[in-house]
Design brief:
By secondary structure, this protein is mostly beta strands. Helices cover about 0% and strands about 50% of the residues. The strands form two sheets. A six-stranded mixed beta sheet has the order 2-10-9-4-5-6, with no helix packed on it. A hairpin with a 6-residue loop joins strand 5 and strand 6. The relative contact order is 0.32.
């Protein structure tokens, strides 16, 4: 069965960095577009970034472009989200997703303090 397991969340101060990982299994990872979403308290889940199956093309939400980088390792079935210059408003639970599917990980909490 499909499994997506996020890790790497934590608490950092504004301006800091974190790298999230999502370990995938149960499907042909190298053929799947992968994405990251986030959900802040009291808000709807929102798109953060997406990467094509080869990793060549990446898309970002305006709010994170230039600060976050999505990447993938198809040999290890892992997708990453490198987050730099973190802001308080980046605080949320971050979810890994097979793009355009209902497969989601359990999420990992990111908390940014001022």
């Amino acid at each position: 069965q499909v499994q997506l397991v996020e890790s790497g969340g934590g608490s950092v101060q504004a301006g800091g960095s974190l790298r999230l990982s999502c370990a995938a299994s149960g499907f042909t990872f190298s053929s799947a577009f992968m994405s990251w979403f986030r959900q802040a308290p009291g808000k709807e889940r929102e798109f953060v970034a997406r990467i094509t199956e080869s990793g060549v093309t990446r898309f970002y939400a305006d709010s994170v472009r230039g600060r976050f980088t999505i990447s993938r390792d198809n040999a290890r079935n892992v997708v990453y989200l490198r987050m730099n210059s973190l802001k308080v408003e980046d605080t949320a639970v971050y979810y890994c997703n097979i793009w355009n599917s209902n497969y989601w990980g359990q999420g990992t909490q990111v908390t940014v303090s001022s």
